[in-house]
Queue: 2 jobs
Job 1
Amino acid sequence: MELFSSVAKWISDKAAQSYVCFGAFIIVLVWLIAGIPLHFGVTWYLMFDAPAAAVSILMLFIIQNSQNRHTIAIQLKLDEIIRATKGAHNEMMDIEKLTDEDLGKIQKKYGLLAEKTKEDLIKGKIDTHTPDLGKDIVSEKQLF
């Protein structure tokens, strides 16, 4: 598993380089030009189609692996910001494990908080306070 992650990271880093995109463009151009003497027949088509399909499937897994790594890294950075910020709700650090229903409840509470804050701003109050969102955001059972 570690070998796949290392190889996937290396490939995704290299595939993101501009010269790789240019190389792919050249390959497609050569393939199109090769179609002329081959009269754009089945051989010409298969010469590119089979390898392109294989590369596409492999790149799908490599891109997903890269996306997962980046998502985890961003989540950990956000968790650290929450942990280090006074007044932040630490129960939010594990929020991605909640059900869609529970996430909807929290989203509704934040929406209500935003509406109240807009009203407070109109009245000249500050919007930097951190009110308690209530104990029913996340149950103790879901936290631990």
Job 2
Amino acid sequence: MENVKNDTSQKALQINLDAKKYGTFAEIGAGQEVARCFFHVGGASGTVAKTISAYDMRVSDAIYGPSDRYVSRKRLQSMLDYEFHLVLERLDALRGERSTFFVFADTVATHSFTRQEDGHGWMGIRFQAECKCEPSEIIIHVRMLDKENVREQEALGVMGVNLIYGAFYYNAQPETLISSLMDNLSRERIEVDMIKFSGPCFAKLDNRLMSLQLVQQGLTDAAMFTADGEVVQPSDVLYKKTVLVERGSFRPITNTTLDMLERAQEQFMTEPGVQGEEPVVLMEMTMRNLLEAGAVDHQDFLARVDILRALGKTVLISNYARYYKLVAYLSRYTHKSIGIALGVPSLKEIFDEKFYTDMEGGLLEALGRLFKSTVKLYVYPWRDPVNGKISTAENLLVAPNLRHLYAYLIENRCIVSIQKHNVDYLPIFSRDVLARIQTYDPSWETMVPAPIVEIIKREGLFGYRETK
């Protein structure tokens, strides 16, 4: 069922009747669907200074400069830069004292006679919140999931109106702004997998929290940002790359967590399909991990992210409780090797049939989806804290009816043990480390990498308090 909280035409009309707002619409691909929404409701002469659609590549290059890709963040940015400079040059002296200028731009690829992939595009707005002030900006990346070109155009028009309306009327409430992007739309039709705010309206805003909001509010199932905090569209990072992922709560990173990743990466780099390449290494936090306490604690989230940042890691936030869904997501962008580093407890969960009762093919279907590509699981051993027995990928006991299936995956090296692991790290668990931090037990410092210890103590993360 689609969200009909706010009517698209009403939004466009409200903007048209606001005498202060005046600007340019620049659209490449999917017609001029956003501008059309404003013309359709009437009163557009109060809002629209100019519309332009530079479809021809040579024309586009002549206006905005050459580009390797026409549907790209770089092209969108050049459109916003050029058109905003132009609107100020032409109109600021004439009406700058009574107008807040804006530029809306998008560059989009939809279904066509020659292109059958899902549509996608970049969309953004640069706007003045007050007359004569420095502009602020919002850019988003969308995936259009309708199978008909006309439906894609319609969804794009609605999304564009929502973005413009949100920028004007919700800029002080970014979480509401994000939610409003899906007004009169549904996830079956469109997905927003990246958003970035900048400028004076958003000077105190952390874009990493806004990425979290995209996943938390259901506009996408996964969002990504780099170690320097820059939000990125996944294809810019993953396209045709080999990928290694470690999933965890990272609350905090422990010696075990880091050893698991480093040893898995060593083995991953020896694989025939990986040799000579530099894999993308992702640290994945799922919403299930973030909701362990019942609600997402933003400060706790940022504490985890800051630690990963110190290690130079790209962060993936996802809503994928099941590993095969993570693989499907990564496979959108690459057909090269994918490695997943995990511990024995997580491997046992993968082979627990109770988690797949909603699937027609049950566990067999889930495993088929997980291993359909060049995917390999790198399994870190686990020591039973009661009897001291060590479980590995090779000696793990699964249900009797799954033993032959499991043996097949082991024999074909779809599942391998992580070698050269540090046995001293096996007794370390994040939950235990966290408890020691919060009860002022200094022994936690031996269980966490030294640089991370320093950050936790300096920033007072995870409830750390210096004892006298």
